[in-house]
Structure formats: structure tokens, C-alpha cells
Description:
InterPro entries: LpqE-like, Lxx211020-like, PCuAC_sf. This is Copper chaperone PCu(A)C. Keywords: Signal. The protein has one helix at about 1-15; strands at about 20-30, 35-45, 50-60, 60-70, 75-80, 80-85, 90, 95-105, 110-120, 125-130. By secondary structure, it is mainly beta. It has a single domain, classed as Immunoglobulin-like, CATH 2.60.40. Strands 1, 2, 3, 4, 5, 6, 7, 8, 9 and 10 form a ten-stranded mixed β-sheet that branches.
Amino acid sequence: MKKLMLGSLFAATLSFAQPKIEVKDAWVREVPPTSNMSAAYMIIENKGKEPDKLIDAASNASKIVEVHETVEGRMRRVKALEVPAGGKVELKPGGYHMMLINLNKPLKEGDKVEITLKFEKSGEIKVQAPVKKGMGGHMHHNY
């Protein structure tokens, strides 16, 4: 009985210390029907006491999803995006964002896009992101 109680207490302690990732305000940019890419934005919040990293992403709307950052007007791919303990990372136009590359079909305002985020510690989190008209920022044109 003591072993069972200690095991339960240890498991509860481990789960309490894990990151607690929440995703808010996700949306995808509407693009012209001739475009084969778009961008997704959101706020990723870690309410836990341990940092976590976004290490991969996938979507039903595109063949490729990559995290990029705008630095001095240029885009660069980010291999992993750290979300600090008790902090957040905002993916927004002109900053960090997700590129949806090789779209499966044109995205129109009102469509819903499913994005699966894969975190190093928290595992997979599925997000539903509505497609909205563009709100400023930059887009890649070199794919």
C-alpha cells in the first residue's frame, strides 16, 4: 500500500512540474487563390514551471509547416521555438510565424485549418485556426 501511495505521489509531482501549454487566438492568413502558401499566427502560453519547445508542426491545409522568424526584414527558419516556463511566445505578422507551404487548396476567409503542434515535453496539441483576411506583416515569395 505504501508503494502505491508513494508511486501516486511521485506521478502527481511529475505531472505538476510539466509544462502546461495553451494556444490562443490562432488564425491563418487568407491569400489569393494563385498562392501556394500562407501563414499562421497564434499565442503559445506555458503555464507550467518547466520550459518547453515547439519542435514540429503539421496541418491538413498544406504539405509543409515551418516556423519562421522575421529578422531585419528577412525570413529565417527556426528549428525549435522555446516557450519559457510561465511565459508565452506570440506568433504574429513581422515576427515569429508558421509558414503553410504547398497548400492543398486555396484558403478563403471563414475556412477552418487544423494545425497540430508537437512539443518536446507536452507532445501534440491540435489547434483549429480560422482563415482571416490579411492584417499586415510579410509573406515569403521564394518557394
